[in-house]
Design brief:
This protein is an alpha+beta fold and 288 residues long. It has three domains: 5-76, Winged helix-like DNA-binding domain superfamily/Winged helix DNA-binding domain (Arc Repressor Mutant, subunit A); 84-184, Phosphorylase Kinase, domain 1 (2-Layer Sandwich); 189-287, Transferase(Phosphotransferase) domain 1 (Transferase(Phosphotransferase), domain 1). 46% of the residues lie in helices and 18% in strands. The protein contains ten helices and eleven strands. The strands form three sheets. Strands 4-5-6-8-7 form a five-stranded antiparallel β-sheet. Strands 1-3-2 form a three-stranded antiparallel β-sheet. Helix 2 (13-25) crosses helix 3 and helix 8 packs parallel to helix 10. It is elongated, with a radius of gyration of 21 Å.
Length: 288
């Protein structure tokens, strides 16, 4: 379900209270028992049933009667909590249209002092276990509903952007809440939708940005023409939740994969003759 600013503004304070209560108990339960919500919110049964009915119709909460009456957040509810918090702290004042949608995120235009975007991380149930296995930031040996995997994913990206944005061409992070990151608006399109005037210069420049990030301890981990925005202000490397440090046991393999994927695009689209292994060794030789 697509969020709207109107829908979030319509939420009653009791509905936000119920969403927060369910979020709190989801650290222990897949389905939060109704009695816990009653005890935690101190609302009457009738009020809770009415409000939860509205939240279900909004696509923010899902319920079950088996093996007991319980409720869980959907992304609509988790997104709403994050956006309501960003609005409450004056990070954003209005939510706009969807600007982009990927496998594990959706990006909205928003308004603050100036134009910004809000990226909502959506780590799906199917990819949750593979992400827990392959990305080092997922907690081990604890109950962690897949909806909270999105919080950890956003946190990883926010860490990278905070470290890199002053030295590497990335969006500027403004704030983070739950699975949402507010960041600077970048004008342009992904590289696959842009025709470069001098592709060789752009390739060499991008390789330099990859090297700077590597020197600072960050390997993108999912670099391709779809994760680079090209526009009037140049190119920017986006989508950093899968980054790994150069000390990661598979760091060389991941870095080589990033470079190989990007080189394949430049070779295919612009007929450049690029040896990705040479590009890879040019980075690690200068850094190590």
């Amino acid at each position: 379900m697509t969020l709207s600013a109107d829908r979030i503004r319509e939420l009653h304070r009791y509905e936000l209270k119920i969403l927060r209560s369910i979020e709190h108990f989801m650290e222990r339960y897949d389905w939060v028992p109704l009695e816990h919500i009653i005890r935690n919110t101190r609302l009457s049964l009738g009020e809770i049933e009415y409000r939860i009915g509205r939240l279900i119709s909004y696509g923010m909460v899902k319920g079950t009667m088996v093996p007991y009456q319980g409720y869980t957040l959907l992304f609509g509810g988790y997104d709403s909590l994050a956006l309501a918090s960003l609005a409450h702290t004056k990070v954003i004042s209005a939510l706009g249209d969807i600007r982009g949608e990927g496998k594990e995120s959706v990006v909205y235009e928003a308004i603050a002092v100036g134009p910004v975007v809000v990226k909502l991380h959506h780590v799906g149930q199917r990819s949750f276990q593979s992400i827990r296995k392959n990305r080092g930031f997922m907690p081990e040996n604890m109950h962690c509903p897949w909806v909270f995997a999105s919080h950890y994913s956003a946190e990883q990206e926010y860490i990278a952007l905070k470290a890199l944005h002053e030295h590497v061409a990335t969006p500027v992070p403004i704030a983070m809440n739950r699975n949402a990151i507010a960041m600077s608006f970048i004008s342009g399109n992904t590289l696959n939708r842009v025709k470069l005037e001098d592709p060789l210069d752009t390739w060499e420049w991008l390789l330099g940005e990859v090297k700077k990030a590597y020197e600072m301890g960050y390997i993108h981990g999912d670099l391709s023409e779809y994760n680079i925005i090209g526009g009037p202000d140049g190119c920017f490397l986006i989508d950093w939740p899968q980054w790994v440090p150069p000390t990661h046991e598979n760091a060389d393999e991941i870095l080589l994969h990033d470079i190989t994927t990007l080189a394949a695009y430049f070779t295919r689209r612009y007929k450049l003759e690029i040896n990705p292994k040479d590009a890879f060794f040019s980075i690690i030789r200068q850094v190590r």
